[in-house]
Design goal:
The complex is a heterodimer of chains A (504) and B (367).
Chain A (H helix, E strand, L loop, with lengths): L1 H42 L15 E7 L6 H9 L6 E8 L5 H9 L1 E4 L12 E7 L7 E6 L5 H11 L4 E5 L4 E2 L3 H11 L27 E6 L2 E3 L4 E3 L2 E4 L6 H23 L10 E5 H6 L10 H15 L4 E5 L5 E3 L5 H21 L10 H16 L1 H17 L5 H29 L6 H34 L9 E3 L11 E3 L1
Parallel strand pairs in A: 1-2, 1-6, 2-5, 8-13, 9-14
Antiparallel strand pairs in A: 3-4, 4-5, 6-12, 7-14, 8-12, 10-11, 15-16
Helix pairs in contact in A: 1-6, 1-12, 6-12, 6-13, 9-10, 9-13, 11-13, 12-13
Chain B lengths: L5 H53 L10 H8 L5 H17 L3 H12 L2 H9 L4 H13 L6 H8 L4 H14 L17 H14 L7 H7 L3 H13 L6 H6 L6 H13 L6 H7 L5 H14 L2 H13 L3 H14 L2 H9 L3 H4 L10 H7 L3
Classes of the chains: A alpha/beta (504), B mainly alpha (367).
Chain lengths: 504, 367
């Protein structure tokens, strides 16, 4: 009996691992096709055509700020200098307790204005709206509101106040590439050209259009990779020298982000199954976002939650939709450098995943929801949510086998080596895809060294991720409160010194 | 010793291949970066030469006959290599996009004298779609004229990227009927393509003779109709009004809203009454566009209609649109009088902040 259980468990773990590896191989191939297609499409298209076009749709850049006094001015200036013909920057002061508001008023010559504001999404009360008297800052709108205990509430206030049909959600402490808006708007404008071979039906009747709008996919959200800024050289919120993080923890995260965005999300992009658009950088269709009620302030993973609800809305209304990713890194953020902060972040992510799985449990394996129900959620459940649990069980099982002396060391080492080398291959491939798309790092050896970081990742970083995920699951189980607003960051203003900023 | 199971030997082989593949990936990364660095060096070299010539052009020195870039390039034998050729084309395009007048003429001359046009034309024959697109884009951006009949075949391509690039090329080079391809388009036109059309039209500085009304009325392709409405507005083509008016009956709300807005842009006053009549039965999006269109057309009846809608509507969007249009239509005194007659809640839409100038205030409210 005992032997049968052992055999069954071994077979289960084996099948699970093989399935996971197959998914990764598929993602690697799909992502390469997508990255390559993106490069080919962009080779001869001058993206700056959009800059001079009167047809460019307007974009509202929404950036919530909570106690950002140290870097708010330079960061807002950086957002105002984005390259795009029609955009506004909405900064939401989410009840900061430091001098964030004073600095904004002082530096941008702000005065209170009457602003036509409709609360289409319910938020904490807005105290006032401010605009600059200086016409150079015409694009800037500041919303001063009560603290909503999270980014979601502040973002919703920004969505309510936004004037344009698309909104870019970012964090005020993120640094964006100058052409972020130009690149992110492209998938919205060019989705119909993705249909490579299309034979339309010419209809004799004028009112019966062969290509009615519902036959074409509507892009509801577009994302791009986020990267670590920890060791980069920054001057006035502009990155002047890209460099992979020197410290080990953010360096592992850099590798993880490259893999997650370039390999995973670009891979899913190929079959229109992108599971989420990161909260750090995402361009959304405002109409759909408002219809689903914007971000949920109670959610620990408000970004996944909103994209899921947007997808559900489209499915329930029989509308074809797409969530797209582009392979060009456009946003740089500071990764946690200490285990404490890192742990807190990962616990929150794990709790967010549990929450999403519970809220949307009716979607999983439900064919009514198409790819969302049959691919996106099952993948999240089996390979994201269950992976830390199964990995831990597998390790405990190994320990048990060692204890009873039922282990073949030779075969064990070969199998572990197999998984280890596969993990390294995936990381190096992701770095290769990244280099194929863009070459931001100045030195070749920096890129090679980043590849070699993948040698340590499975033995140092991965166990930490599993550990914190499990802690998150346990905390979810006991419904322990999550504390917001304690993410200690160093800041990345000009002097990479001792700035300590408390972020939301 | 026991014989190793087949499965384990398979895993061993896979492990080895993963290690080799990882090494290959790293090697490719290094090679990619080396080739990129090499290209950068070439680009800097070319940049130096082109800057040198452009300096001479700008300072008015002898240019075309005595001291051309072509001679310099020939002397330095740089344009013979494939990599240099492509770089040179890219750089000339970049220079051309940023220059006009003499610089424009010279870059084109260099393009032709160096035989780079042959290289671009060869690309259009390629079997790879992205190379074909690249070739077409190069001849558009360098304004190297080729017979429009040669381009027409590409507009029928089943590959939408190629067809799109060909349509832009056709629009760029066709003298008689630059939008002829719209008769044949059966794939959706993307917004990016429309942006490219606008760019080409604005650069050509010539009005097209195309009658957009024809496609607006008879095309079975929704995106063509949408595109032609935009183009008719851009070209201020009054003769398209009749065709656009016919679209007020279509079931597609987005298209109807677009048509209403177009009538407003074209100030088609003859449709004002029709728009007012249909207002009450329209969805919010179309109502908002009707307010805009009627406001754009102007007149006493327009003001009365918008004022009435502002007072009766409960929709924030409509009230916002109305207040914006009224701010444009009424003079300061009339606006103040109207504002004072409103209840406090409605005055909010015309809120004047004393700390800001009127202009800034209106900008603030995004009228």
């Amino acid at each position: 009996m005992q032997q049968t259980i052992i055999d069954l468990f071994q077979q289960f773990i084996f099948v699970y691992s093989v399935c996971m590896m197959c998914v990764y191989v598929f993602l690697a191939i799909s992502s390469f096709i997508n990255v390559d297609n993106y490069a080919k499409r962009n080779k001869s298209y001058n993206i700056r055509n959009i800059v001079s076009s009167p047809l460019a749709p307007g974009i509202s850049v929404i950036a919530p700020a909570y106690n950002e006094g140290l870097s708010i001015v330079s960061n807002v200036e950086a957002l105002l200098s984005l390259e795009y013909p029609k955009f506004e920057v909405i900064i939401i002061n989410d009840g900061s307790t430091d001098d964030t508001m004073d600095k904004l008023i002082q530096n941008f010559d702000l005065v209170e204005v009457n602003y036509l504001y409709e609360e289409r999404i319910k938020t904490k009360p807005v105290n006032r709206f401010l605009k600059s008297r200086n016409s150079a800052y015409d694009k800037l709108l500041i919303i001063d509101k009560e603290n909503g205990k999270g980014k979601a509430d502040a973002s919703n206030a920004g969505i309510n106040a936004s004037s344009f049909d698309y909104f870019l959600c970012t964090d005020v402490d993120c640094i964006l590439a100058q052409d972020t808006l130009l690149r992110l708007i492209r998938p919205f404008l060019g989705e119909s050209s993705r249909i490579r071979k299309f034979i339309g039906r010419l209809s004799g009747k004028q009112l019966d259009y062969a290509q009615s709008p519902d036959r074409q996919k509507k892009v509801i959200a577009v994302g791009a990779p986020l990267r670590m800024i920890n060791s980069a050289k920054v001057d006035s919120s502009v990155i002047v020298r890209f460099r992979p993080p020197v410290k080990l923890l953010p360096r592992f995260q850099e590798l993880e982000y490259i893999r997650a965005y370039l390999l995973s999300k670009m891979g899913w992009n190929g079959i229109n199954c992108v599971p989420n658009v990161s909260g750090g950088l995402g361009l959304f269709d405002k109409g759909v976002a408002i219809k689903v009620g914007g971000y949920d302030p109670r959610s620990f993973a408000e970004d996944i939650d909103m994209v899921t609800r947007m997808g559900l809305y489209m499915i329930q209304n029989n509308l074809r939709y797409a969530v797209r990713y582009i392979p060009v890194s456009l946003c740089w953020t500071e990764g946690p450098e200490t285990l404490k902060v890192f742990g807190r972040q990962r616990i929150r992510w794990a709790r967010g995943l549990v929450q999403i799985m519970l809220i949307h449990k009716n979607i999983i394996f439900n064919p009514r929801y198409g790819r969302l129900g049959l691919i996106v959620f099952p993948y999240n459940l089996v390979f994201e949510f269950l992976a830390p649990v199964l990995e831990t069980l597998g390790m405990l099982f190994y320990v048990y086998l060692i204890a009873i002396g039922a282990i073949n060391w030779h075969n064990t080492f070969i199998l572990l080596g197999f998984l280890y080398s596969f993990s390294i291959l995936m990381s190096t491939m992701a770095v290769l895809w990244d280099q194929y798309t863009q070459r931001q790092y100045f030195k070749t050896w920096e890129v090679v060294a980043l590849c070699f970081t993948s040698l340590l990742e499975p033995v140092i970083y991965h166990p930490l991720v599993v550990f914190f995920s499990l802690r998150g699951y346990v905390k979810s189980l006991f419904k322990r409160e999550l504390v917001w607003g304690d993410m200690q960051r160093k800041g990345f203003t000009d002097n990479q010194g001792d700035l300590s900023v408390t972020l939301n | 010793m026991d014989k190793q199971p087949y499965f384990i030997s398979w895993v061993e082989n896979a492990l080895l291949s993963f290690v080799v593949a990882s090494c290959v990936c790293i090697l490719v990364v290094v090679l990619l970066r080396l080739s990129y660095n090499l290209n950068e060096k070439r680009r800097l070299k070319l940049e130096g030469i082109i800057d040198d010539v452009l300096d001479k052009i700008i300072t008015g020195g002898p240019v075309l006959n005595d001291y051309t870039l072509l001679n310099m390039l020939k002397r330095r034998k740089v344009f013979f290599g494939k990599a240099y050729r492509q770089l040179l084309i890219d750089m000339l395009i970049e220079v051309r996009l940023n220059l006009s007048g003499m610089g424009d003429v010279i870059t084109r001359k260099i393009y032709v004298d160096c035989g780079l046009h042959n290289y671009s034309l060869r690309k259009t024959e390629s079997s790879r779609w992205h190379v074909k697109v690249q070739g077409l884009r190069e001849i558009i951006l360098m304004n190297y004229e080729i017979p429009d009949i040669d381009i027409l075949q590409f507009t029928l391509s089943r590959n939408t990227e190629v067809a799109s690039a060909a349509r832009c090329a056709y629009l760029n080079f066709s003298k008689n009927d630059p939008f002829r391809f719209l008769d044949e388009v059966n794939a959706p036109l993307s917004m990016l393509e429309l942006i490219e059309f606008f760019r080409i039209l604005s650069e050509s500085r010539n009005k097209t003779n195309s009658n957009f009304s024809k496609w607006i009325r008879y095309s079975g392709n929704r995106s063509v109709v949408y595109c032609c409405i935009k183009l008719a507005v851009y070209e201020k083509q009054v003769r398209a009004i009749k065709g656009i008016t016919a679209l007020l009956d279509v079931d597609d709300t987005d298209l109807r809203a677009e048509a209403i807005a177009a009538l407003g842009h074209l100030r088609a006053s003859e449709t004002k009454q029709l728009l007012m009549d249909m207002y009450s039965s329209e969805p919010l999006k179309c109502q908002s566009e009707i307010i805009f269109a009627i406001g754009n057309m102007g007149g006493e009846d327009a003001i009365a209609f918008i004022q009435s809608e502002f007072l009766t509507s409960t929709s924030f969007e409509i009230q916002k649109r109305c207040s914006g249009m009224l701010s444009n239509l009424l003079n300061q005194q009339e606006l103040e009088t109207f504002k004072n007659s409103l209840e406090e809640e409605k005055q909010y839409f015309f809120g004047i902040n004393r700390k800001l100038s009127n202009k800034q205030q209106y900008a603030t409210n995004y009228y």
